Amino acid sequence: MFKKILIANRGEIAARVIRTCEKLGIKSVAVYSEADREAPFVSMADESYLLGGPRVQESYLNVDKIIEIAKETACEAIHPGYGFLSENAGFAERCQKEGITFIGPSPKVISQMGSKIESRNTMEKAGLPLVPGLSRPLGNVDEAIIEAEKIGYPIMLKASSGGGGIGMQAVTDKEELIKAYEGNQKRAQMFFGNGDMFLEKLIEKPRHIEIQVLADEKGNAVYLWERECSIQRRHQKVLEEAPSPFLDEETRNRMGEAAVRAVREIGYSNAGTIEFLVDKDKNFYFLEMNTRLQVEHPVTEEITGLDLVEQQIRISSGEELSFRQQDIKREGHAIEVRIYAEDPNTFYPSPGKITALHLPQGEGIRHEMAVHGQSHVTPYYDPMIAKLVVKGENREAAIACLASALADYRVEGIKTNIPALSEIAGLDAFKKGETTTDFIEKYYKNSNQKMTKA
Ligand code: MV4
Questions:
Q1: What's the CA-to-centroid distance between 107 and ligand 1, angstroms?
Q2: Cα–Cα distance for residue pair 299/296, rounded to 1 Å
Q3: Which of 79, 74, 77, 66 is nearest to 31 (CA)?
Q4: Is 292 a catalytic residue?
Q5: Annotated catalytic residue, options 10, 16, 233, 292
Q6: Which CATH number fits domain 207-452: 3.50.50.60, 3.40.640.10, 3.30.470.20, 3.40.50.720?
Q7: What is the CA(235)–ligand 1 centre distance, in A?
Q8: Which atom of ligand 1 is closest in space to residue 232's alpha carbon?
Q9: pLDDT (mean) for 74-80
Q10: pLDDT at 149 over 90
């Protein structure tokens, strides 16, 4: 087992990893930017070092500085968290070259799963069902027109290096495709440095349901059930829950088994998530694979009783999984909401100084905090200030716990999205589990007016 780990991240996930390091008796090294000097994770770590200024290039993406500090402090491993360098194959490779364990999968697999076209090909060979479509880059708009005719409208135009919905557009006919192609390709080229585009049949009103997997370096792999992540706003998840209110036992086991077969096939190790689109008839299609721990991992921890950060660390240190599929329980229902420093009406980030923080306490309530009662919420990073995770013995109990926890949650001094989250938790459609990806614009009052304003 490692003696010391560097956490190459910030905010709530840095605090989360440090907490598990403490539990395992592993020394933790935090690295932080000038803007995060007062953040809780910095004082939680056994040691903490300044990376540089607030810009991510000077700090959380500053590979040379991160490696330098890891070596100077004799860290055997680096945990990348999520975002930043967590899916950067070059960084994983650099860690290997420097003799530092990257807590995650191999650089090869990270790179493979980073390209939507390559991951489609790889996962098709591994037996996962794909959305009908094209698994190679389109040459130009004329080829797109030909391929779209073969697939049949409506289709989804996508960028191979896309993420967060950038470079993605649903089109219903040839004219729309011609108009959409160039703009999306240029955006993909600009954002990702890669303009490769491809096409898929549009899955109407899908659900976004993802399977958590764990695989050790000896070829053992298990699935830890699913997470329903369909309530999204502009491809940002707003609320996640486990298990999904939509899946039946047979479908969830089929999805889990397919996911495990695939991770074995591609030689995956560590924690990973396979995202699926699920249509109204419960057909599921591979969407993409995330080769990192996800923001929403706590809902899986709550229903399985596992500590996923601990599992990541153990796997990276060479340990075999200490359980088999039949040992993994699924108990109760968990829901996570992301509390953001943002205006509940415009959804604009709303940085500033928190003057008081009152957190609801009680049975089934878990907090993952990025801030404390006197924190400044900086404009430099994602304005997440905390995650609120609730657990109940069933979905109704979890929703009741969520509603009361949100009602008691006080953040003074800045605006937050808590009112919007309370409203969503109170909607009949949510309580009925009618959570498809069009939920926000369909059920959330004035969402169009709010969307357009934002
Ligand atoms: C799709 C889709 C429907 N049909 N692909 C891919 C990236 C992810 N963030 C969203 N993705 C989707 N891919 C096909 N062929 C629906 C989604 C989707 C979505 C699309 C628009 C608005 C919100 C969405 C939320 C989840 C999934």
A1: 26
A2: 6
A3: 66
A4: yes
A5: 292
A6: 3.30.470.20
A7: 8
A8: 25
A9: 98
A10: yes
